[in-house]
Specification:
- The chain is an all-alpha fold and about 210 residues long.
- It folds into 2 domains: about 110 residues, no CATH class; about 45 residues, no CATH class.
- It is about 50% helix and about 0% strand.
- Helix 4 crosses helix 12.
- The longest helix is centred in the N-terminal third of the chain and has 14 residues.
Length: about 210
């Protein structure tokens, strides 16, 4: 049985959702079908729980890199003083400079400015040129002929037309459908986050999504 995601459900879970995200979900059933997410209620519930957490209730489009000087060594202790070499005051409240420093030269970011250009974006934050490229290829395999090139136009990852597809591609790339079938939220969180940051909040989102899709 195909599980439907309707606007009333999105509105109840995320009343402050950005209009582009609401529009994205309003036209997303084909995306959820092609990525196999709508195959059962557990997949939809887990996918939506992670998306809702990662996007701050469907309100965040971009990674927030506007850090204060005291916060920078907490987030990147190996990079910023006192343990690291960089002076945090030189990067505080300067998202572009910070992104180019912490993301430049890795994750496929090989040109000047790539760190900021390919910073975290979308419902499940795409980060790094390599991931933008891989997600582009996966979306194009599902939607041949009309999918965007996210490397050339990364902001398409937050557009109404492609925001859900971008998140679904990350989800598939990380093998999360099988983990959702096993109701394994800790493993899904590790695949999405790289660790367990926000696990309690993700579990609360899952409780709420399971109340809708069950």
């Amino acid at each position: 049985m195909t599980i439907r995601v309707i606007d009333a459900d999105i509105q109840s879970l995320a009343p402050s959702a950005r209009s582009s995200y609401r529009q994205g979900f309003a036209q997303a059933q084909t995306v959820l079908d092609r990525f196999g997410i709508s195959n059962n209620a557990l997949r939809v519930a887990h996918f939506m729980a992670q998306v809702l957490h990662e996007s701050g209730g469907l309100t965040f489009q971009f990674e927030n890199l506007n850090y204060s000087a005291p916060r920078l060594p907490v987030v990147w202790p190996a990079r910023f003083q006192p343990k690291g070499p960089l002076d945090p005051s030189q990067y505080a409240h300067n998202p572009e400079k910070l992104a180019n420093e912490v993301y430049g030269g890795r994750m496929g970011n090989d040109a000047p400015g790539d760190g900021y250009k390919y910073r975290g974006r979308g419902l499940i934050q795409l980060t790094g040129k390599d991931e933008y490229r891989a997600v582009t290829e996966l979306i194009r395999s599902k939607f041949p002929g009309n999918a965007p090139d996210l490397v050339a136009s990364p902001d398409d990852a937050v557009s109404a037309d492609w925001c859900v597809a971008s998140a679904a591609a990350v989800w598939e790339q990380k093998g999360c459908n099988a983990l959702a079938d096993a109701d394994a939220i800790k493993l899904i969180t590790r695949r999405i986050n790289g660790g367990y940051v926000g696990l309690a909040q993700r579990e609360e989102w899952l409780r709420r999504t399971k109340a809708i899709w069950h």
